[in-house]
Design goal:
Number of domains: 1
CATH class: Mainly Alpha
Radius of gyration: 20 Å
Number of strands: 0
CATH topology: Farnesyl Diphosphate Synthase
Distance between the termini: 38 Å
CATH architecture: Orthogonal Bundle
Shape: globular
CATH superfamily: Farnesyl Diphosphate Synthase
Largest sheet: none
Strand content: under 5%
Order of helices and strands: HHHHHHHHHHHHHHHHH
Length: 337
Amino acid sequence: MSAQPQLINKVDRSPSERLWEMAASDMASVDQIILERMQSPVGLIPDLAKHLISAGGKRLRPLLTVATSLMCGYKGDKHHKLAAAVEFIHSATLLHDDVVDDSTLRRGKKPANLVWGNSPSILVGDFLFARAFNLMVETNSLEALKILSNASSIIAEGEVRQLAALGNMQMDEDSYMQVISAKTAALFSASTEVSAVITAQSDEKRKALHDYGLKIGLAFQLVDDALDYSGFESKLGKSLGDDFREGKMTLPVIRAIEFSKHENDSFWHRVIVERNQNNEDFKKAMLLIKSSKSIESTIELARQYSLEAKELLNVFDASPWRTTLQELASYIVERAS
């Protein structure tokens, strides 16, 4: 039986922390499934999976599955398996991403590929994907399986699209938005849409949940991309300037180039296209981005998506779940301040 939500009055609690407290018993069930399903007689698999999954991530995506299901009045336990599947998909993509991006920090720790190597990380990522599909099938919901499997393929396409765009100064805002819609927002939208499926919501409410997830996913990635040039590693969970060093054309860079009317193209070509960077280049990039105010405009776009996400939930009855999910949409942007 799902725990009844309790209003948390502590002003120092973030919306995600309040959702965790409201859904404590459900999230404990999700964590138990995650712990059980990452086990294997092949010792390297649980060791490597535990390194990532227990590294302090906020479990935001599975929390969204649980919270939106409970907002819709769900009484069964399918949302636990779907939430665990969502976390396995996310964890698998992180393992693969760290290999592709040659990351040096993940959630404040060494990424798994720097501890065990690239090949084990890729293969354990594949194992987690397989576990996710096992869980989806066990819910006996063909529609939920369709949503999450489709999201998995879209995420892969987004990552390939981003890889192909590395070092491409011709990348425009539309192309950038297509990349983050696929590689980040697709799993957010799937994690909330499956709640509408298992609770048999109307088409209107199902679309509202899909779009809510999509928009907070876009806001989440926009803020991350802004923080890469202006934030602190404690907020990012990765090293500052990773996007810069990898030659990624994120929105702050795209807008900084446009703002300067291409006066600094030779600099950007050297550091982004040629990847010929010295120790002072990241500082210069931050100064150019700061002068263009592209951090502020990126955050403002994230705020716009956040506001739209909040509005979408008004089709649901007022409840502590709806209120806190709406507050979460705002908090995703506020963490940049």
